[in-house]
Fold this protein.
Amino acid sequence: MKAESEEKIIEQITLLELFVTFSQLSLCGFGGVGPWIYRFIVEKKQWLSAAEFTELLSLGQVLPGANVTNFAGMFGYRVKGISGAICAILGLLFFPFFIVIAIGIFYERHGQVAQVQGALRGILSVSAGMIVFAGIKLSIEQIKNWNKFYHIILIFLTLFSVIILKLPLPITVLLVFFTGLFLDRVEFK
Amino acid sequence: MSILLILFIQFFILSLTSFGGVSASMSEMYRLFVVSLHLIDHKKFMELYALSQSAPGPNLLFVVLLGWNLNGLSGAIISLFSMMIPSTVLSIFFDKLMVKYKENSWVKLCKKIFVPITIGLFCASGVVLLKNSIHISTLLVALLTIFLLWRKILSPIWIILGGAILGFIGLV
C-alpha cells in the first residue's frame, strides 16, 4: 500500500526533473552509481523514504540486468508511466554514453603509452576488489535469512559452472535455479 | 551473421540472465566475446573494461565500449539498448506485480535462489579480472580496495583514481 504522501510527492515530479536528477547522480557515479541514487533520491530530493528505497532496490536483486538502470526504469514508471521511465533512464545514460565513447576514442589515439597501460592495470585491480567486495556485502546482508548449507552450495555451483565448466550463462542460471528448487524441496519436505 | 545481429542477440540474452548486473555478467561477456566468438582479444577486453570503470555512469556502459569497438556507433547503440531494454521492461512489469504478490512464497523462493547466483557471478568476475594479471601487486591493490570499501575510508571514485595513479607510476 503506497502511503498517500508518497503518491503526492511522486505526482509532482516532472519529466524534466527526472532527467536532470538522474543525469546529475549518474555523472557522480564512478565505478558504480548505486550509492549516489540513495544520496540523490532519498536524501537530497526525498522522493522516496529509506524504506521504500530499500524495497525497490531489493526487488532489483531478484531481477536480472543492471540494478541501477532497472531502478531508474521502475521509479520513472511510478512517476509518469513510460515517459517517466524513459526520462529517468535517459538521464542516467545520455551524457555518460558520450563521455565513455570519448574516453574510448582518446584511448585509441593516446593510450598505448606504458603509463596509461599501467593506469588501466591499476583500475582493473581495483575493479576486482570492488566486485569481490560487492559479493561479500551482499552475502552479509542476506546472511540472516540464510540456511548456510543451501546457499553456499548454490554459490559454489554457480562459480564452478562458470569458471570450471565454462557453461553459457543461461545454462548456469537454469542449472543453479533447478538445483535450488530441488534443495528447497529436500529441506522443507 | 552480421556483427550487429550478434550484438543484439547476445546482449538481449545477457539482459535477461545478468543477475547482479554487468559486474556479474562480465565473466560471461568474456567467455562469449573473447573465448567463444573470438571477436575481441583478451587485452582489448580488459582495456575496455578498465576504461568503462574510469567513466562516470552505470557499469552498463561497458557494453557501449564493446559495441563501439566491434561496430562503431551503431554497435554501441545496439549493445546498449539490447542490454538495457529487456531487463528494464521486466523490472517495470514486476514492480507492478510485486505490490500484489510480495508475500508470495514463490517470490521468496526466487529471492533465495537468485541472490546466491549473483554472489557466485561476482566471484566469477573477480576471478576473470584477477586471472588477467597474476602479480602480487594486483592482489594487494584488490585487497586494499576491499579494505577501504569495507571500512568506508574512501569512496569508489578515489579508490579508482588511486589505483590508476599507482598503475601510472608503475607500481601495479
Notes: Chain B touches chain A through 104 residues (CB under 8 Å). The longest helix of chain B spans residues 62-101.
